[in-house]
Structure formats: C-alpha cells, structure tokens
C-alpha cells in the first residue's frame, strides 16, 4: 500500500495536488491542518487484478431416468456419494433408467434411501444418556425436550445432571428447566461427583447428563470429557447442527467419535435449506439417528427420526408425490 504525503498552503491546493499525483480515485487516508497550511496523506487506488473465471464443476453424469430425482435430492443437500449408491441400487432393478418419465423411479429411490438411513429408538430405553457435541448446537435444549417427553408421554421418572460447569449461565438455565419439569437436578464438578450423582439417582427411569460444548479441534478437552464420562459409561448421544458446513460436521464427528458415539441427534433442522448434508454424513458414517429437532419450543419441537419420512422429504418433488411415497 503506497501512501503519498502532500503539503500545500490551502486544502484546495492540497487536493488538487493529490488528484494530479495520485489520480481522481485516490483515497484520502488523513487530512490535517498545520501552522504552514494543510497536510494530506493519500493512497493511490490499488490495481484490481482480475480473478480467473472459476471452472464450473462438471455436472454428475446421471442416468437419464435418475437425473431428475438426483437434481431434486441435490437441492435438498444429499451428497453425490449417497445419490450414487441409490442410483447403483436402481440399476439392479427392472426400472427403465435409460429414459426419462418412469413414475416408479422416485418411489423406489425413496425406498432405497430409507434403507440407507439408520435410526434407533434406544434413547427412549436407555437409563443413562450423555449429550455431547460442539458449542451452540442445542444440547441443553434437546436434553430438556427429551426429558419432558419421557415425563409427559411415558410417565417416566427423570433426573438431570450437568457437568457443564464452564458456563454458570448454562447451569442456571438447566436448573430452571429442571424446576419447570419438577425433576431432580445435580451439578457435578469432578468425575467423582458425576459417579456419586449417578448412583444417587439410580432408581430413576432416566438419568440425562448435560456436557460442556467443546470445539471439535480441542482434542485435549474432548479427551477429558471422555475420561469423565468413562466413570459411568453412559449411552453417548451426539448433537450435531443440521446447519453445519460439511467439512466442519465431518471434523466434529471424527473427533467426538473418540469418545465412542452411540447415536446422533440432528438439531436446527428448521434453520437450513440443505438438511441433506447432515443426513448424508450420518448415512456415510453409519451413525443411527434418534431424533430431529425443529425449533426451540420445549417439549414440542422434536421428533423421533423416521427413515421413511426423511427419505420422502429428500426425494419427493411436491406434497402429492410425498404422500405417495409415504
């Protein structure tokens, strides 16, 4: 960045010199009055180096009969890897993929995708569950929704423990939720505290453990979390935001899986236009989905993961077609 210092008896003369020496598009960095007149510090406009045009990614070479389905599913966010697996399965059927217009293709593609999506209802039967994941993905709210539904729908007893002592606001938030649900609440500062709290509430149908959100790249913190949870060996449910960028979500799953993930909860499904990216990652990582969260309301904005409904959402073009697929 080349700066030019120009002095003149008057401001107008200084600006005239700036225009002459630096051009009409010069940037004025500083203008200062002195006992001898005015000083102007100016910068010549930097030359704009044109960027080479981006090379457009080659469109996937889908079979004609699958291309329309693939286009819609790509808009949903499904990865090419998942779509290739679906197409490969369709090629082995009697469907005519060498031409467009076969109305059975979306229906069968949805069935194939449904088979690829692993789901689990183990969380409803688990006595001890810990919720882990990156910061800001909604672990605490998700825990509260699951607790509320266990109480409301199945009349089960619940105890809540938090080891998220890093943020006192989080402790108070969860304490307020526990009071609202009228369930026992414990704060565990150490692994020994956690073990004692679990033993104390052993008669409960469910003990739900909230954990501190951690950066996926803070391996020391994740290892410390693993060591803490190892004292009671809970079911590990990871919360992952459906809004996460693909590379970030991959890193989160890879690093948190050192703890030993048992199931996946996709949060903030309602906050993205590409939920298929997170869904594709769950398929590719063979992680069973237990729940999808759709908002902040407790306990309403959460649903059990339904492979058929998820597949229909990804493949269907309109409501009428979606009804057929379901």
Give a quick rundown of the structure.
This protein is α/β, with parallel strands linked by helices and 326 residues long.
Features:
about 325 residues; alpha/beta; Rossmann fold; 8-stranded mixed β-sheet; 3-stranded antiparallel β-sheet; 13 helices; 11 strands; disordered C terminus
Descriptive account of the structure:
There is one protein chain. The strands form 2 sheets. An 8-stranded mixed sheet has the order 6-5-7-4-8-9-10-11, with helices on both faces. It has helices spanning about 10-20, 65-75, 80-90, 105-115, 120-125, 140-155, 170-180, 190-200, 220-230, 245-255, 275-285, 305-315, 320-325, and strands spanning about 5-10, 25-35, 35-45, 130, 160, 185, 205-210, 235-240, 265, 290-295, 300-305. It is built from 13 helices and 11 strands. It is flat and about 85 Å long. Helix 3 (about 80-90) crosses helix 4 (about 105-115), helix 4 packs across helix 12 (about 305-315) and helix 6 packs parallel to helix 7. It is about 45% helix and about 20% strand. It folds into 3 domains: about 5-45; about 60-115 and about 305-325; about 120-305, 3-Layer(aba) Sandwich (Rossmann fold), CATH 3.40.50. It starts with a strand and ends with a helix. It has about 325 residues and is of the alpha/beta class.
């Amino acid at each position: 960045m080349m700066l030019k210092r120009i002095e003149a008896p008057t401001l107008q003369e200084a600006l005239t010199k700036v225009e002459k020496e630096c051009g009409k598009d010069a940037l004025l960095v500083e203008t200062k009055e002195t006992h001898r007149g005015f000083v102007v510090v100016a910068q010549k406009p930097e030359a704009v180096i044109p960027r080479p045009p981006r090379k457009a990614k080659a469109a996937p070479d889908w079979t004609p009969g699958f291309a329309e389905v693939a286009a819609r599913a790509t808009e949903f966010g499904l990865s090419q890897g998942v779509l290739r697996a679906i197409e490969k399965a369709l090629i082995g059927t009697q469907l005519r993929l060498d031409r467009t217009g076969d109305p059975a293709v979306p229906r069968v593609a949805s069935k194939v995708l449904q088979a690829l999506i692993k789901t689990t209802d183990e969380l409803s039967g688990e006595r001890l569950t810990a919720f882990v994941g990156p910061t800001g993905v909604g672990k605490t709210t998700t825990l509260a929704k699951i607790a509320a539904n266990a109480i409301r729908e199945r009349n089960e007893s619940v105890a809540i423990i938090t080891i998220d002592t890093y943020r006192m606001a989080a402790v108070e938030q969860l304490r307020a939720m526990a009071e609202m649900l009228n369930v026992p609440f414990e704060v565990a500062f150490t692994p020994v505290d956690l073990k004692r709290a679990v033993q104390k509430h052993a008669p409960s149908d469910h003990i739900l453990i909230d954990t501190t959100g951690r950066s996926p790249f803070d391996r020391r913190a994740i290892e410390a979390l693993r060591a803490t949870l190892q004292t009671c060996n809970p079911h590990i449910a990871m919360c992952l935001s459906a809004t996460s960028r693909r590379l970030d979500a991959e890193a989160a799953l890879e690093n948190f899986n050192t703890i030993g993930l048992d199931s996946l909860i996709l949060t903030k499904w309602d906050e993205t236009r590409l939920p298929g990216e997170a869904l594709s990652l769950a398929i590719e990582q063979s992680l069973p989905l237990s729940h999808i969260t759709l908002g902040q309301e407790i306990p309403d904005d959460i649903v059990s993961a339904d492979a058929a409904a998820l597949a229909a959402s990804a493949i269907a073009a309109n409501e009428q077609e979606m009804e057929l697929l379901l």
